[in-house]
Amino acid sequence: MNRLSRFFTPLFVVALMLGMSGCGAGEPGKQNVSTAPATGQPANPRVLIETAKGKITVELFAGNAPRSTANFLDYVRQGFYDGTIFHRVIPGFMIQGGGMTPDMSEKPNGEPIPNEADNGLKNLRGTLAMARTGDPHSATSQFFINVVDNALLNHRGKSVQGWGYAVFGQVVEGMDVVDAIVAVPRGPWGPHDDVPVEPVVMRRVSLLPPATAAQP
């Protein structure tokens, strides 16, 4: 069973039965833990995702999710994401991308990283989180952006069922673009479901110039 068929499918069915919690359209949610860098440390890195639907700027929470942030930035610096697509979009849930080409071929990626979902960050609307298979520690290049508050994806314990999905960033500009992406027509592609009929391509994904270091 591949990454696409395993990721989210059981959770999405349960979520539909229980009803999604939290907000829908609107501004991104607010975390209960601080995501600001420590005093004197560099500002959180920001990445620009230029898509066929517009631009999305995300801020990465390097202090809260160092391994996930470093992993994502490695792929960004390699140009790995350029030309990939948002290959799975589910209204009322999320948009997923970062590993498939427009012909729905999966790009070879690096080694999986440890799951950092126990960092206290929640899967709120507008947050960026690592996609994975049923193995909690299997995340590589793929990520998703929550379009609602998805409490069902949060860390509940260090078991296979409870690990959850690691949040490592937040959309700071372009949430309207995310909403436009999740609204595109979609359908099946071979064994895959919820694939945009017209590919939503990430034309370029780049690290923005660093901001001024945090002040005392």
Please provide a brief summary of the model.
The protein has helices spanning 3-6, 9-18, 66-78, 175-182; strands at residues 46-51, 54-60, 85-90, 94-100, 127-130, 143-146, 167-173, 186-189, 192-196, 202-207. It is α+β, with helices and mostly antiparallel strands and 216 residues long.
Report on the structure:
It contains four helices and ten strands. It has helices spanning 3-6, 9-18, 66-78, 175-182; strands at residues 46-51, 54-60, 85-90, 94-100, 127-130, 143-146, 167-173, 186-189, 192-196, 202-207. The strands form two sheets. The protein has an eight-stranded antiparallel beta sheet with strand order 3-4-6-5-7-2-1-10. The N and C termini lie far apart (50 Å).
Low-confidence stretches: 1-23, 212-216
Structural class, from secondary structure content? alpha+beta
Termini, distance in Å?
50 Å
Strand order across the largest sheet: 3-4-6-5-7-2-1-10
Structural Rg: 16 Å
Main β-sheet: number of strands, strand sense, barrel status?
8 strands, antiparallel
Strand content: 25-35%
Number of strands: 10
* Helix/strand order: HHEEHEEEEEHEEE
Mean pLDDT, as a whole number? 88
- Give the CA-based shape: globular
What's the total helix number?
4
Percent of residues in helices comes to 10-25%
Based on the model shown, name its key terms.
single chain, 216 residues, alpha+beta, two-stranded antiparallel ribbon, 4 helices, disordered C terminus
Give the SSE map:
Elements: H1 3-6, H2 9-18, E1 46-51, E2 54-60, H3 66-78, E3 85-90, E4 94-100, E5 127-130, E6 143-146, E7 167-173, H4 175-182, E8 186-189, E9 192-196, E10 202-207
